[in-house]
Each structure stands twice: as C-alpha cells, then as structure tokens.
Fold this protein.
Amino acid sequence: LMQCQAEAVEKSSYIAVVITKPPETVLVLLPPSGDDIVGNHSSSSSSSTKPYILIDSHPRPQQLSPHHPSGSYALFHPDLSSLLGSIQQIFPVTDLGPGFPEMMVIMYNSFDVYPFQ
C-alpha cells in the first residue's frame, strides 16, 4: 500500500485500492501522500491528517475488535499501521499444515491489489 501511495500520479488526492483474496474483496482509500509520508519510510507508524479508510460490504461480527461490524461498513484509521492490522484480520495467513506443496501454500495466501486514481 505504501508503494501505491508513492507511485500515485496525483499526490494531492486519495487513491482507491481494491484488494482481493478470493472469495473476499475490500476497498481501501489511501490519503494523499504528501511530503511527510512519501519521504518517510516509517510512515506505517506516522499519522496523516486525513484518515485511511477500509470499506467492506461483508459483516464481520467476529472480527475487527472493538467494532465487530454487523453489516457493510467503513472503518477510519488514523495511520497505515492501524489499517494494516484490520486488513490482516480480514485476510489472515492460511496455514495448510505440513505436507502441502509450496505452490499451493503460495496460492492460498496470495492476494491482488488494484490501485485506481
């Protein structure tokens, strides 16, 4: 997601990023990168004046504490680190256990990222 911000054509507007790990898909809105984020490699812990936004059409009553959304939702995050925490809850690593081919493990744990601006 930091790469999406860094490579944005228009640095002063939000970037919409669709993240898909079948069968799940979410939309993330990344705030304008500005000088304070692009040049700072520790941006995952820095705060932006504009929120990072996670939009999802699926209820997550067992996830995303303390919110536990019971329907479609938009969660506002103060920084990239907080947003990544929510994404990791939605797209957890799939542990297939021993004996599975590496390619299958990679397939089950891959996701696609599509930035739009």
